[in-house]
Amino acid sequence: MDFNPQLSVLIQLSLIDNKLSPKETQMIYALAKANKIPEKEIEKVFNYHLGHAKHEIPHFDHLTDDDKFDYLFNIVQLMKVDEKVYLSEIKYCQELAEKLGYKKNVIRELSSRIFSDPTLTHDIEGLKSQVLKYRKE
Length: 137
Known about the structure:
- With 137 residues, this protein is mainly α.
- It is 61% helix and 0% strand.
- The radius of gyration is 14 Å and the shape is globular.
- The protein starts with a helix and ends in a 5-residue tail after the last helix.
């Protein structure tokens, strides 16, 4: 999966509350680097979104269920990483979930199961099975 659209979504989420935390930045850089995105490209995407107030959510028609889960997992973890969750972040995550083909309350379910510390391990397969229950018909 091309990580660039997800990078853009993560950066948009980090900027939605107008309070970019160091923990959010660190997590975004770590995810992008793990997906082989050069630091220069990460900075370019950050700078683009800093200059644009409008949030653009990409189309997700081509994504597999695993890719969609990765989006959901990463956005919820990013939302919680600074241990401050804002209504604007929740609404953005819910909008993204709906565009991914899920009911928006999947964000509440994942939020209750995903910790703010990205180093904690998760029962990924258990989370995936929970997420599938929220698929739109």
